[in-house]
Amino acid sequence: MSLVANTGKLAGRTLFITGASRGIGKAIALKAAKDGANVVIAAKTAEPHPKLPGTIYTAAEEIEALGGKALPCIVDVRDEKQVQNAIDEAVKKFNGIDILVNNASAISLTGTAQTDMKRYDLMHNINTRGTFLASKLCLPLLKNSDHAHILNLSPPLNMNPYWFSIHVAYTMAKYGMSMCVLGMSEEFKSFNIGVNALWPKTAIATAAIEMLTGDTSTSRKPEIVSDAAYIMLSQDPKKYTGNFAIDEDVLKEHGIKDLTPYACDPSNIDNLLPDFFLDVPAKFKEQVKKNESKGEIPELFATISKVITPELVKKTQAIYQFNVKGKEEGVWHIDLKNGDGTCGQGEPKNPPDATLTMDSTNFAEMFAGKLKPTTAFMMGKLKINGDLQKAMKLEKMMKSLKTKI
Q1: Which residues touch 224 (CB under 8 Å, ≥6 apart)?
Q2: Residue 16: which of 233, 247, 190 has the closest Cα?
Q3: Measured distance CA(199)–CA(192) in Å, rounded
């Protein structure tokens, strides 16, 4: 679903897009293809992945079906030779590169103690180093273009300590991409190269979000980002540079007021999951505040104990510890890994897979389905230590509980 009409401004232009075999990268490629653009699909997936859809070759077929020209290249952005080889192939086939989209990214939403250095290196080598490397190697070709852009899929540099505290390694890696925008937009001005960042206002229905939450009903479709990217990449690079843009703002400035068609589930238009690094608007905080209830935690756990089933244990396979703060301060647990499952006050008998800390005023709301764990986490209402993916399984579990609580 695209609400932005193609103007032909990217016709004949060559885009080098990292991570373009699926998700946002592919959506940007397909939007440009409708103009008749050339697209270099620089991504790792050459063979079908057992869990993730799309390869560089299937993406190439989709691009050409829409009227674009495609060059699929196997590229790991951590490997300088692979990046350079793909650039050389682009020159052979398309005689140059006009636009670089640094989309490839790695994510691990873990605290300092839980982030192993292999994962740390992966994020920094793909996000920050990969973006710097691709920009550096494409620079000689971009200098020769009369419509040169670099677009990084990275957030505004928000120095709110909260965004560092919950996953400092990932925040550093993403902000590294944004610092490339900050520096290169000024450095490359004399070459008439526009360097900008684009970030979604809400969660986007990509493989990463589905893996994290198991649910995309409070997300928007990748097309909202590709439409915003298309508008940005159609601008005059001499005048449009150094911007940290948000997809929703770009579209509204373009005259698109109703963004409902981008929602995966239009009934959730007022309950979309805010993306990382964007401070939550005051009105959203007020809405959550109104929904807060006093909560009777002992009664809540008594109810939960009645609805725990062996099937739920089999599906979840996780132990949770809840460190409740505020009026009803205390420690509680739910064991959905052992036997037929148990819950109650105190620490679990076995080490928890995830420890969740939140105020008692939000606790009952979360279990009643009025405040999603993912939303609470993104807003700073919920802090998680341990296995984040298992923690987010709570959302599925709560769906089965909320009708009974």
Answers
A1: 200, 204, 247, 248, 251, 259, 262
A2: 233
A3: 23
Cβ neighbour number for residue 386 with a 10 Å cutoff? 21
Task: Tell me which residue has tokens 């993104």.
Answer: 378
CA distance 231 to 251: 8
Task: Provide DSSP, 296-343.
Answer: -HHHHHHHHHHH--HHHHHHH-EEEEEEEEGGG-EEEEEEESSTT-EE
CA pair distance 194, 18, nearest whole angstrom: 18
| Prediction pTM value | 0.75
The token pair that represents 230 in the structure block? 């298309």
Over the chain (405 residues), the average pLDDT of each successive run of 10 is: 94 97 96 98 82 85 97 97 98 98 93 94 98 98 98 96 92 98 98 98 80 74 97 98 98 96 92 86 44 56 78 89 88 91 90 91 76 79 87 71 54
Name the residues annotated as catalytic: 170
- The Cα–Cα gap between 29 and 220 comes to 18
